[in-house]
Amino acid sequence: xxxxxxxxxxxxxxxxxxxxxxxxxxxxxxxxxxxxxxxxxxxxxxxxxxxxxxxxxxxxxxxxxxxxxxxxxxxxxxxxxxxxxxxxxxxxxxxxxxxxxxxxxxxxxxxxxxxxxxxxxxxxxxxxxxxxxxxxxxxxxxxxxxxxxxxxxxxxxxxxxxxxxxxxxxxxxxxxxxxxxxxxxxxxxxxxxxxxxxxxxxxxxxxxxxxxxxxxxxxxxxxxxxxxxxxxxxxxxxxxxxxxxxxxxxxxxxxxxxxxxxxxxxxxxxxxxxxxxxxxx
Amino acid sequence: xxxxxxxxxxxxxxxxxxxxxxxxxxxxxxxxxxxxxxxxxxxxxxxxxxxxxxxxxxxxxxxxxxxxxxxxxxxxxxxxxxxxxxxxxxxxxxxxxxxxxxxxxxxxxxxxxxxxxxxxxxxxxxxxxxxxxxxxxxxxxxxxxxxxxxxxxxxxxxxxxxxxxxxxxxxxxxxxxxxxxxxxxxxxxxxxxxxxxxxxxxxxxxxxxxxxxxxxxxxxxxxxxxxxxxxxxxxxxxxxxxxxxxxxxxxxxxxxxxxxxxxxxxx
Lengths: 281, 267
What we know:
The complex is a heterodimer.
Chain A: E1 16-25, E2 32-42, E3 47-51, H1 58-66, E4 73-78, E5 81-82, E6 90-93, H2 105-115, H3 120-133, H4 149-161, E7 167-171, H5 179-195, E8 199-204, H6 207-213, E9 216-220, E10 227-232, H7 247-260, H8 269-275
Parallel strand pairs in A: 3-8, 3-9, 6-7, 7-8
Antiparallel strand pairs in A: 1-2, 1-4, 4-5, 9-10
Helix pairs in contact in A: 2-3, 2-4, 3-4
Chain B: H1 2-34, H2 50-62, H3 65-97, H4 99-112, H5 121-127, H6 131-156, H7 160-168, H8 173-211, H9 216-225, H10 229-257
Helix pairs in contact in B: 2-10, 3-4, 3-6, 3-8, 3-9, 5-6, 6-8, 7-8, 8-9, 8-10, 9-10
């Protein structure tokens, strides 16, 4: 399962190397370091969860991998190529409400192929395949506002995967969903990832989510974010939903809980805002 | 079932009250004008009753003058408002998207903005070779600012995460402008167009009263000078009707251009 994989479309899986990376947000006196001196390497096809308290710079790191935020020091590369800007090779799924409200579901999913100049018939066919993969056949002609939160996130995933990215970046994609929908989405995501493998970086503050999904859980400290733990999750795949009740799961959960226990310093509003800020477009 | 008929009955009841309210106003008008009611600060002595207005309206509807007046008014609004819509949206996009364009274009616009369009009438008569052009200019000025400002607002407030998503999906700058910024700003642009349409009519009627030869505003003012008092109210009603019609047109345009704002399929 750990061996490098190549997906059905013959596109390679991205190897991510983050070396001594620092990212600062804001300008001049307002500038502050979101992450500092970060070293992470992710093998092709690996599923990595980045876990950390809010305001630890984990979303900023993801923004930098997506190419929306520039790093101020060190290097970020995918397959040896430095990240200089956004690319469909590195798809990103946000928490919520980033589907284009004026496009129907199918047209949302078609966006990437349309940008690559693929003809209408072919791209619609591709979109319908992806929508079937995420279990949304029959909803092609709906507007996003007509779908539930969980369905909207499935469209998001389809819209990103249609570009056959080497890296899939997910920024707390299920945290706005109710618990039941969230656990359904976890199983769906693992199914999709098995069928269309990519290197996957998944940012979350939910310990159980991280342990259930990932091959590896990286825990970050408060700002400026540093790595305090790099944990290999020992459970084999496919993982049954009731794995969360196993003793080993509970043990790892307790360990991560202690690492994440909030220290006295609380996140300021300013830190929260810059954490969720994107680079100017 | 019971609730349905209950609310249906209530609906009819409310409608009756609403229609009754309008009828009561017309009845008051009829009584006040036939009695030549004088309330001290306001008098109905010269106000023609609704029955007389109705007769004048029928006369106007049958006369060829109506088409000439409406034709010239509509022509002016289309010309002035059309140019304002086109230029306003272009300016709004440039200012909303580019800091350089904003630095160059916004200061003069901000200086001119507080001047009401009707205050331009004397100067525009001096500036343009024909009163026709000066009236078109007034309707243009009236519509321009609301359109520019609402477009800027809409363009500047497009959700940055949508733009970020589009860039990550491979959208070029031009594609993002067309596929994301334009539809994202569309609700605000349509609001600007609707406000602009209202001010455009208002300015046109004023300009026609001062310098027109044809047009519905001119007709209304001419009726006053000729002491055809019933025709004044006919003119007012026609102006109101066309204002209503144009705003209905824009609301409909909004629904047609932005179907995602009111989707038909049930959730």
